[in-house]
Amino acid sequence: MRRVSILGATGSIGQNTVDLIARNPDRFQVVALTGGANIDQLAADARALKAQLAVTAHAGHYQALRAALSGTGIEAAAGPEALIEAGARPADWVMSAIVGAAGLAPGLRALEQGATLALANKESLVCAGRLVLDTAQRHAARLLPVDSEHSAVFQALIGEDISAVERIVITASGGAFRDWPLEALKEATLEQASSHPNWAMGQRITIDSASMFNKALEVIETKEYFGISPEQIEVIVHPESIIHAMVGFRDGALMAHLGAPDMRHAIGYALNWPDRRHLPVARLDLAQLAQLNFRAPDAARYPALALARQVMRRGGLSGAVFNAAKERALDHFIAGRIGFLEMAATVEAVLDRFETDPGLIDAPMTLDNVTQTDHLARIRADETIGARAG
Ligand code: NDP
Ligand code: MG
């Protein structure tokens, strides 16, 4: 029996993970599940999977969670500290699927106890790549990618020498607005940005797909996880989302990973690694697909991609600034306070403002410094947006 925990169990990735684990009850012993506001789902899954511990991120939901679990013997806990403790509960495998920088600290704790960390939370690598990798190394813990592109690259690299890699190409669907006229983007609504042409995902990553901030995060994630230089990372728009990534080798070979757009593949791969087991994902009918299309991403449509390049050039804690400013800009877009295109403008302005005090970005990458930088970048984003609105 493998002991497993799911951080962010009530989300889109979390629910797919719950599904895969529930199909194999005799292979897994569930240690901890965490969620946020969705107490009913959290309690139902904790009961169904016979978890030891259920944690909500919000202290205000503690009583509701406790009540929902009464008589089950399942421990209930709440708040950010309890989330971190959930990550620290001894387990063999931990899914990191909290959305945003909030996933960083619990994931680090999972690595510190030597667990294999299945990383859906790309923000961890964007904010604190070196810290995450060093923590894994120090505790002999393994980090497995769950993002579909990175899982694809990981699989294409099996048995290969990273020094023979010339380039990594990650695909992007282009999101909800890939075929919109550029002028119309300014007026794009929350509802329009919240639907994805191919993937069913949480609302935040869906909007980040429309703006390509998701791909921007993924480019940085690729650099951090695989340790290759930014110039070796390419993004190609591939509207069908069938090829998830390609690895180009120095002899000219380009190895592609194909699959239906279903996150249960990448999650199940990480869950079963290093084995491959049957997974309940659709098999591709290539004759029916008939063709796959590609186009270069349009820099004017997707300014987030250039910002990611700027962040990789800058290094230090600029990834934490970038991610936090993006999260805050997204909060404001969701709340209807800024337009779709103002998200990238806000992030750019916050990155520029940090350059007036470079000491902050060049501080050592500790969890405290990352957390403080994240906090300050959110304040700067609020100020920028306030300034814009005013
Ligand atoms: P969702 O929004 O669907 O779920 C997020 C999860 O995090 C939920 O369990 C939510 O709880 C919880 N949560 C929200 N805010 C906090 C907080 N402040 N502290 C602790 N927990 C919190 O997100 P996704 O599942 O779509 O994405 C999760 C992560 O995986 C993200 O990093 C995303 O980029 C990444 N990812 C997602 C993919 C996808 O297909 N969805 C693909 C590749 C990567 P509740 O809902 O109960 O409030
Ligand atoms: Mg992805």
Summarize the SSE layout with pairings.
Layout (H helix, E strand, L loop, with lengths): L1 E6 L4 H11 L5 E8 L3 H10 L4 E4 L5 H7 L6 E4 L1 H9 L4 E4 L7 H9 L3 E4 L2 H17 L4 E3 L2 H9 L8 E8 L17 H4 L9 H9 L1 H14 L6 E5 L5 E7 L4 E5 L5 H9 L13 H4 L13 H12 L3 H17 L7 H13 L3 H4 L5 H23 L1
Parallel strand pairs: 1-2, 1-5, 2-3, 3-4, 5-6, 6-7, 8-9
Antiparallel strand pairs: 8-10, 10-11
The structure holds NADPH dihydro-nicotinamide-adenine-dinucleotide phosphate (NDP) and magnesium ion.
Magnesium ion binds next to helix 7.
Function: Catalyzes the NADPH-dependent rearrangement and reduction of 1-deoxy-D-xylulose-5-phosphate (DXP) to 2-C-methyl-D-erythritol 4-phosphate (MEP).
GO molecular function, one term: 1-deoxy-D-xylulose-5-phosphate reductoisomerase activity
Protein name: 1-deoxy-D-xylulose 5-phosphate reductoisomerase
How far apart the termini lie comes to: 58 Å
Approximately what portion of the residues adopt beta-strand conformation?
Answer: 5-15%
CATH architecture of the largest domain: 3-Layer(aba) Sandwich
Low-confidence runs of at least 5 consecutive residues: none
GO molecular function: 1-deoxy-D-xylulose-5-phosphate reductoisomerase activity
Organism: Ruegeria spongiae
Catalytic activity: 2-C-methyl-D-erythritol 4-phosphate + NADP(+) = 1-deoxy-D-xylulose 5-phosphate + NADPH + H(+)
Function: Catalyzes the NADPH-dependent rearrangement and reduction of 1-deoxy-D-xylulose-5-phosphate (DXP) to 2-C-methyl-D-erythritol 4-phosphate (MEP).
3D structure, described in words:
This protein has 390 residues and is of the alpha/beta class. The chain folds into 3 domains: 2-145, NAD(P)-binding Rossmann-like Domain (Rossmann fold, 3-Layer(aba) Sandwich); 151-289, no CATH class; 315-389, RNA polymerase sigma factor, region 2, helix turn helix motif (Rna Polymerase Sigma Factor, Chain: A, Orthogonal Bundle). It is built from 17 helices and 11 strands. It has helices at 12-22, 39-48, 62-68, 80-88, 104-112, 122-138, 148-156, 190-193, 203-211, 213-226, 264-272, 286-289, 303-314, 318-334, 342-354, 358-361, 367-389; strands at residues 2-7, 28-35, 53-56, 75-78, 93-96, 116-119, 143-145, 165-172, 233-237, 243-249, 254-258. The strands form 2 sheets. The chain has a 7-stranded parallel sheet, sandwiched between helices. The N and C termini lie far apart (58 Å). It binds NADPH dihydro-nicotinamide-adenine-dinucleotide phosphate and magnesium ion. The site of NADPH dihydro-nicotinamide-adenine-dinucleotide phosphate has 28 residues, from helix 1, helix 6 and helix 9. It comes from Ruegeria spongiae. Its cofactor is Mg(2+); Mn(2+). 1-deoxy-D-xylulose 5-phosphate binds at residues 122, 148-149, 173, 196, 209, 214-215, 218.
